[in-house]
Recover the amino acids of this structure.
């Protein structure tokens, strides 16, 4: 009995192989999606965010210049009550300008450090991609070979058990 294998279901091996193929397809899609998202984020930082905050700085500077001119005009007119609104507008513009400048500095820092932070993670993703592209197809081929071997074994076992027994003497 030691030279026999107990095979309960070759179909389970086929079902596992089919599930593995589905997993590989989804995993490839996920890895590709992550790579695309990293590239989009890099472009977003380098272009979209930098341009956005530079435009915001220009807008706040224009508004600050206008608010400063309005404040000077109000002070020259000698109306003390009307200058408080202009003073608040100048303070608001200065805050907006300072915030926009800080955001632009942050974007520049992220641009500079993006590859430093993402490099190790992308390297791990490439390791996963290599595993999915090279190792898993070998595993699938091994499963197919094991399935064929087990099918052949089952066929020989069935043909051996169907053969008529020798007549008793």
């Amino acid at each position: 009995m030691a030279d026999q294998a107990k095979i309960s279901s070759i179909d389970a091996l086929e079902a596992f192989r089919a599930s593995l193929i589905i997993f590989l397809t989804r995993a490839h899609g996920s890895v590709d999606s992550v790579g695309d998202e990293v590239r989009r984020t890099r472009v977003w930082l380098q272009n979209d965010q930098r341009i956005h905050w530079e435009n915001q700085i220009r807008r706040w500077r224009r508004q600050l210049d206008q608010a400063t001119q309005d404040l000077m005009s109000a002070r020259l007119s000698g109306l003390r009550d009307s200058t408080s609104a202009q003073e608040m507008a100048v303070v608001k513009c200065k805050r907006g300008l300072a915030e926009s400048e800080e955001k632009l500095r942050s974007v520049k820092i992220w641009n500079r450090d993006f590859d430093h932070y993402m490099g190790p993670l992308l390297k791990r993703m490439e390791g996963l991609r290599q595993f999915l592209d090279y190792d898993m197809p070998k595993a699938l081929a091994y499963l197919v070979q094991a399935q064929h071997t087990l099918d052949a074994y089952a066929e020989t076992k069935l043909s051996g058990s169907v053969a008529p027994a020798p007549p008793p003497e």
In short: The mean pLDDT is 86.
